[in-house]
Amino acid sequence: MALTGKKLLLGLTGGIAAYKAAELTRRLVKSGADVRVAMTDGATRFITPVTMQALSGQPVWTDLWDPRVSDAMGHIELSRDRELIAVVPASADFIAKLANGLADDLLSSLCLARRCPLLVAPSMNVEMWQNAATQRNVAQIREDGVVIAGPAAGDQACGEIGLGRMLEPAQIAADIEALLAPKALAGKRVLVTAGPTQEPVDPVRVITNSSSGKMGYAVARAAHEAGAKVTLISGPVALATPPGVARIDVRTAEEMFAAVKKAAPGSDVFVSVAAVADYKVKHPSPRKLKKVNGRAVNLELVENPDILAYVAGMKNAPYCVGFAAESEDLARNAAEKRAKKNVPLIAANLAQDAVGTDDNAIKLYDARGEHDLGRGPKLELARKLIAHLAGVLPSGK
Ligand code: CTP
Fold it and tell me: Residue 134: phi, psi to the nearest 5?
């Protein structure tokens, strides 16, 4: 059981998603965790403490002035022995309190007095989530080191559709497990590339591809969760930087190459997830190109440097992982790519499975053969990839 003996404090705030905390508690207890529950007054309007007590098997705490906790700094004691506090659901109001360090009820006092990591799973109406004040507060608590799980997009209890819906209990449980898992890459430096590159044709036009960057960002996040110091070199994407990851933005393959050349020598692992454009325009026009009515236009393309092959060929090269997006015959293409680029590990997926979506299906190919990571959300596959990597890294790397 992934959470055997782990001591958690689960905090509930007022929101309709509070009922999902019941299912989460059941899952956490089933995977071996000791779950202590604290609820705000608002939370008790949505789900009763009795329900949470029955599922956690422990008394539930709701009141700062409860005689059981108010004597001898007891409210601080309630979080002292905990390895993680998870606030599920976290309302807009509660996030605002966290951002400002308020402690006017039991749960906010426990959060302020904690020594352990804090995860929050926001749950609110889409307009409340998008409000500048909420976004400011979320950015603040993220900067303060709080882990934000979600929210997801989709149907909301209020009838609207959009971002703000709480993650499902299974996803929150997986995030909690990842946070508490042994740090398999502690002390390692991991370099990740992600996203597409843009190759200029003229000042306003580019050649690019439809990579979203999601897989590379998931790998960076999973490596950080596993205790690594992560540098993420990213092409142009619309994604938030994973917490704790150092991000360097680039546009062209040449810029990515220069950034990687600088960062690679200090790295233990290089995971090349970027969809680097194989070709660039030989002579990009300094002026915007005009239409030439009725005539075909030819662009002369020349090859970009192969960043992965360069790093794999370095003296004292980091352990290199290549990504291969193929349209068919994964095993043969992956084996060829391993040999051609001299890379010990190739993560192969079918391009049609991966591009732009949140899910993927990945198989790994290394000296020991094929390892099927199965199909699932990109973050889940990234975590499996990192776990595999931790097992095959040469000692001393
Ligand atoms: N890659 C790279 N630099 C390039 C092209 C690719 O670092 N200029 C990396 C990618 O990040 C990926 C791996 O190489 O990890 C595989 O990329 P792919 O484009 O599939 O390989 P190619 O050698 O370009 O083969 P193909 O002919 O299939 O395009």
Answer: -65, -45
